Description:
13 helices, 79% helix
Amino acid sequence: MIPTWFAYALVTALVYAAIALLAKVVSGTEIDDPITLTIYSCIPFYAVYIAAGLLLEPTTLSASAVTDPTPLSAALTAMGFGVVSTAGYGIYYWGLVSGDVSRFVPALALETIFVLVLGFVLLGESFPTGVYAGVLLVVFGALFISYEHGSGSIRGTVGPSTIGVALAAAAAFAVLNTGMKVLTTEFGTLEVLFWISVGGLVSIAAIAPFREGSRFPPTGGRDDVFARRLSKGISLLIVGGLLNALALLTFVQALETGPVSLATAITKLDVLLVFVGSLALSKLTPELLAEQFDPFTLVQKGTASLLILVGCALIQFAAT
């Protein structure tokens, strides 16, 4: 029988893949400023959990904020993780704007390494050798997908910008994920998400003045047409933000019932899902998403995706 945490982590991977594809379509056709993407994507899911916390658990939240010193310090810590969340998403959207979604998202599997180290150091998590082998397969497969084959040469590279931005985003998300795992010992799921969202919303307000305009010109020189296009892009980002609210909930549920290292590794299945989705969009609607899929790339990404699947299966069976 599939463990509950595994099912939650798998749902999280599905939603993360949908969010990445939505954001890439918007950044490639309309809004290319990472801060603007972060604002419109993060506000919806922060607002969802703030509203849910106030409506469903007002008494608990009031007690933790006023009467009990321990939850107060934990609440402030959670708000700090909310700032980390916004920073992570800002770096994430920077990577999406500057590169191919089918290469950047896989490189984010480096998060697994950070989480494994943090889980060991802070939480004392340790697992059978097979689990670590599975994690390594997931990471290797994700990096192999990011390997760019040089035109007319057998040489290839993973661009420094891809790796650098992915490392920064992965580190931020690893800190956030491990922090959420720690906070589940102090709070319930909704409380954790409430306080993280409060900190996240405050940090959104802080970065809002620094957003820039888009490089995409108005279509046909008509402001009303551009406004309609902008509205569509913002609507997609809001949908992505609401999906993120669902993903954050399912991921916290996975953390409550399973180890942070394994739950994070399973969410890396979004690498395979993003590859399939970007391939389909590139072939069916190239005006929305156009990425390179030559024969070498197809074989490369197919092989890497298989490695990721094998790694996730190894994690699943070795941990049981």
